[in-house]
Structure formats: C-alpha cells, structure tokens
Specification:
This protein has helices spanning 2-36, 52-59, 68-77, 160-175, 208-218; strands at 41-45, 86-95, 98-105, 108-114, 117-122, 127-131, 140-142, 146-148, 156-157, 182-185, 191-195, 198-203, 227-230, 242-245. By secondary structure, the chain is of the alpha+beta class. The chain has a six-stranded mixed β-sheet, with no helix packed on it. A three-stranded mixed β-sheet has the order 1-3-2, with helices on one face. A three-stranded antiparallel β-sheet has the order 4-5-6. α4 runs parallel beside α5 (208-218). The longest helix has 35 residues, at 2-36. It is elongated and about 110 Å long.
Length: 249
C-alpha cells in the first residue's frame, strides 16, 4: 500500500516536472520568436503591374506583421482575405529577419476611360485599378459605358451581354499573347479590334472563341500590312476570310 502511494506520488512529480519543462520550453520558444524573428527585409518578386511597396502593404497588414515567423505561419496555416489584384502568392522565410514574397498577379485584360480616369479590369470583369496611368499592352475598350465603377467590384455595364462577350474575346487573345490597341463595340453590336495597321471586324458574338483561334493563325501573315480583316461572316462551315488592304498600303 505504501509502495503504491509512493509510485503514484513519484508519477505525479514526473508529470508535474514534465508540465513545468514543457511550459519553460514553450516560454523560451516564444521569447526566441519575439526577440529573434524580427522583420528587417522583404524581398518581392513576380510583380510587374504593382510596386514592391503596394505588395508589402497588402501582405504586412496588421499590428503583428513585424514578426517574420508570424507572417509566414499566418499565410500558410490560415485562409486569408483575398488580395484583389493578386491571383496567388507564396511567402517564405529566408532568414529570421527576411521574408520573400513571390507574387502571381491577376492579368489585366483591358481598360475603359471613365471621367478622365482609366478603369482597368481583370479576366473576371473585376476592376483592379482606377488611375491616370497607361499600362503598356493593355487594350482600350470603346463603345461601352459604365453606370458606376468601384475598385475591386465587377464592372457595372449598361449592356451585360457586352461584358460577357468582351471577357470571352479578351481571354482568348491573352491565351494567344495578342494585344490589340483597342477593342470597340459598334452601334450595330459588332465587335472590332485594332492591331495597329490591321482592323479586325469580328461581327457579332457568334464563334468568338473560334474566331480568335483563326485570328492567331492569320495575323502573323499580315505583318507589316495595313487594312481590314473580315471575320464577321466566318463560321465553322463558311471559312472564307477576306483581307481588304488599305488603299495607300
């Protein structure tokens, strides 16, 4: 009986000692995390449209972001609020004082001019920026109007079908790495795209995906030329394509 009590008492002591050691270890780990993992340097890569400073401000967005370990664990273990202009992001710990932010930006596929501002939108039709700057290789969209533009919200067009057609065509152009100077909705509902000296008449919204594929095959053959490429009558059954050279070309 006495031996049993002694064993239980020794077991309790060992358990208590284990708890104390664990708490001491935990306190030491927390102290190290606080004292050692202090943010001094942020390395940003992959960004083209937005500055390093904009990326840093989007990621280091709370009062504990001075701690590198906290920042890395925060973005790895928890589902964070989506950053509107970033498609994906990787955050790594390079050293106790340095983190690396690898950015995959959402592609901007066009812009419209509203009240002397350029309203840039992504492949889903969401406004990612409203500014006066001109971003290279992003087509201007003409012939449509917005009721209201709010950054990080979807374009509010008077013609919702036009937005759907625009996004379909723009995404296909991005797929083939073509960037027209302008995309225009004509009053009759037809769509045209201006590639410098080549104006492409796409007609209505029928077969936009297939027309973009055909366009990708034809445009290299028209390098250096000027005129109008007629795809408005193209269908999978009527595959004739007419190029009407400019008179002075």
């Amino acid at each position: 009986m006495i031996r049993e009590k002694r064993r239980k008492k020794a077991k309790r002591k060992r358990l208590l000692l284990g708890i104390v050691l664990f708490l001491l270890f935990l306190a030491a780990a927390i102290l190290v995390a606080i004292r050692v993992f202090t943010l001094k340097k942020v390395v940003v890569s992959g960004n083209e449209l937005y500055s390093d400073q904009q990326i840093r401000e989007s990621v280091l967005n709370d009062e504990y972001s001075w701690n590198t370990l906290y920042v890395v664990l925060k973005y790895r273990l928890f589902k964070m609020k989506e950053i509107p202009f970033i498609d994906e992001m990787e955050i790594d710990l390079r050293s106790p004082h340095t983190i690396r932010i690898k950015v995959y930006e959402k592609a901007i596929i066009g812009y419209i001019a509203v009240n002397n501002q350029n309203v840039y939108f992504d492949k889903d039709g969401f406004v990612v920026e409203i500014s006066k700057r001109l971003i290279e290789h992003v087509p201007k969209v003409e012939g449509i109007s917005c009721r209201e533009v709010v950054v990080y919200e979807k374009l509010d067009l008077n013609n919702e079908e036009a937005l759907s057609h625009l996004l379909t065509f723009s995404q296909q152009l991005e797929k083939y790495a073509w960037s027209p100077e302008t995309i225009t909705f004509q009053e009759n509902g037809n769509l045209t795209a201006d590639f410098g000296g080549i104006c492409v008449n796409l007609g209505d919204s029928d077969y936009l995906v297939e027309k973009a594929m055909r366009l990708d095959a034809i445009l290299p053959q028209l390098d250096g030329k000027k005129g109008t490429l007629h795809l408005e009558s193209w269908t999978p059954l009527t595959t004739d394509v007419i190029f009407d050279p400019a008179k002075n070309s």
